[in-house]
Amino acid sequence: MTDSDSARRPIYRFPLTGAAETLDDLVGTAPRPRPRIEAAAKRAGSLRLRRAALWSAVRELQDRPRTAGYPPRIFVSYRWEDEAVQQWCRRLTAHLRDRGYEVLLDLENLEEDLGPAGVNIAGYVARLVDVQAVLRIITRPYVDGLAREWLLAEDQLMKLMAETGCAIGHVLLRDGTEPPDWGRHGTVDLRDAPEDFTRLDAILAPYRGLALPAAAEEDLVELLIRSRDLLAAERPAEVAGLLARRPDLAGTFEVRQTLAHAWLAQGRLREAAEVALSIEGLPGRPTVETTVDVALILEEAGLPHDALRLITKVILLPTALQPRIRRVAGSLLEDLGAPDAALRQLRWALGQPETAKDPKLGSDLHNMIGHVLLFALGDATAALPHFAAGAALDPDNQHLVTNQLVGLMTAGHTGEARRLAAGWQRRPGLIPPLHRIVEAIEQGVDVRAPSVRTGPRAATHVCTDCGAAYRLDPGTVLCAVCAATSTAARKCPYCASSRWSLAGCPTCHQGEIVRRPGAQLW
Asked: What are its GO biological-process terms (predicted)?
């Protein structure tokens, strides 16, 4: 059992993970006079203080819904090394504006306005936190400049923005070298053709969508906040009326996303599905958050094929949100009867550095892997270690405990199951499935997972990079998008893609698929 309730909560911006130091940790929560800030800078170091200030400012803006941008905004960051680079950046800006984007240029006079010890940077962060993409122009002086404190702090901010879904692109110019490891995806090399801006279309396709005045975009954000509050207060009927009063915003991804939530919360699944599917017909590109959210709505509305088709549109994007994307893809693949592909997606997500920063996400992934092993493949023995690992990461994950109890009973560990159930029986606020399982075990009912006849099959091939395992029998084809195997001739029966993988791994998109030593084909 996984957390299907997530589809009932609008996702406008994924939360930051980790427990980085904030400005309050160093300076305190009282008003901050200059002497106290300077004392903190001497005590903690200027760079540490600036990073804490960056994290604080981003966190303060996290409650603000992210939109796709109408038009999308791009921040261009570069080094003012000479007039030639400045002129080149102006030509780049003109190209991007011709492509329909709003462009903000890094004028590199920001350090003069940073305030004492570089803490007064909220305005700078505010400029960046709502852009849809950042282009960093990488030249040798830019890379050398990373040794300076401010650019190190900016690098930290870029990591934070990548983690929250902002697209971070890197353009290699002149003698620029590769960007940091975390930013190597989404890199465009212009060192051999600096005026060939069309190469940027690979990461920034031309925008020909809705254009709103700045005031209307701010109204959109306020509308989303009010709608979110109404949905949280279980007043979904009021949301449709609220949205209807702004017909000028009806063509935005976020308004339709929110309206679909309102219908879903009222049990009107057909209307929710129709509105959710209409999002695909809008020009432009929704945020990753909206795409994931709409896929969850479609899953809840009983359209898993459409949900998977939608989620695969972002499954190849170079974003730090990939573990969350793969989590949804894995859940859908299990629902559609492709447990092996589900395991590949979920295991890949579990092994990513971003997942290690988020114990709740890690716990959820362990739960979902265990769910596939237990209920789809009938392997309780393999499932139990995942339930145990997930419980260690998040002891309050009730969906996981529900599955763990069934797994223990299925594996014959009746005593352990009864002890675990007894501990949870005394807790208030149990979700209904866990309450039913606990009561059944306490009453002596033999709760077991349904018998699965197929069971797990031995893999014949493996990825050289991520270790993903595949069973490729004669006549089997492998989808290059969702990593599911089938005997389909034209389109993948799960995600409807017509792209097949011949040698590359469709799970990590890095390694090659090779024959497992000693593997026998059926």
From this structure: signal transduction
Contacts of 162 (CB under 8 A, 6+ apart): 168, 182, 183, 319, 320
Q: Is the peptide bond before 71 cis (omega within 30 degrees of 0)?
A: yes
Q: Which of 269, 257, 248 is nearest to 224 (CA)?
A: 257
Contacts of 206 (CB under 8 A, 6+ apart): 99, 100
Phi, psi of 336 (to 5 degrees): -90, 5
Quick: pLDDT tens for 411-428: 999 999 999 999 998 899
Strands (E), 342-493: 461-463, 469-470, 477-478, 485-486
Would you say the CATH fold of 23-61+71-202 matches that of 1-8+213-320?
Answer: no
Q: Please provide the DSSP assignment of 412-433 as one string.
A: T-HHHHHHHHHHHHT-SS--HH
CB 348 within 8 A of CB 508: yes
Helices (H), 62-193: 83-98, 122-129, 140-145, 149-163
- The pLDDT tens digits of the residues spanning 137-146 come to 777 665 555 4
The 3-class secondary structure across 97-114, one letter per residue, is: HHCCCEEEECCCCHHHHC
Considering the entire predicted model, what is its pTM?
0.82
Task: Count other Cβ atoms within 10 Å, centred on residue 160.
Answer: 22
pLDDT of 32 > 70? The answer is: no
Output the average pLDDT for the chain: 82
Strand partners, 145: none
Q: What is the pLDDT of residue 119?
A: 43
Q: Could you tell me which of 61, 51, 78, 74 has the C-alpha nearest to residue 126?
A: 61
Please write down the HEC assignment for all residues of 233-256.
Answer: CCCHHHHHHHHHCCHHHCCCHHHH
Instruction: Please determine, looking at this structure, whether the domain spanning 358-455 carries the CATH number 3.40.190.
Output: no
Buried b (16+ CB within 10 A) or exposed e, 45-83: ebbbbbbbbbbbbbbebeebbbbbbbbbbbbbbbbeeee
- Nearest-angstrom CA–CA distance, 188 and 14: 27
Residue with tokens 């393999």: 382
Coil, strand, or helix at residue 401? helix
Rg over CA atoms, the chain: 25
| Residue with tokens 């594996």, as numbered in its chain | 411
Beta bridge partners of 77: 136
Q: Average pLDDT of 274-287?
A: 93
CA distance linking residue 448 with residue 409, whole number of Å? 6
Give the CATH H-level superfamily of domain 1-8+213-320: Tetratricopeptide repeat domain (1.25.40.10)
Q: What are the extents of the domains in the chain?
A: 1-8+213-320, 23-61+71-202, 358-455
The encoded tokens of residue 210 equal 């809705």
To the question of domain 23-61+71-202 being in CATH 3.40.50, the answer is yes
Contacts of 82 (CB under 8 A, 6+ apart): none
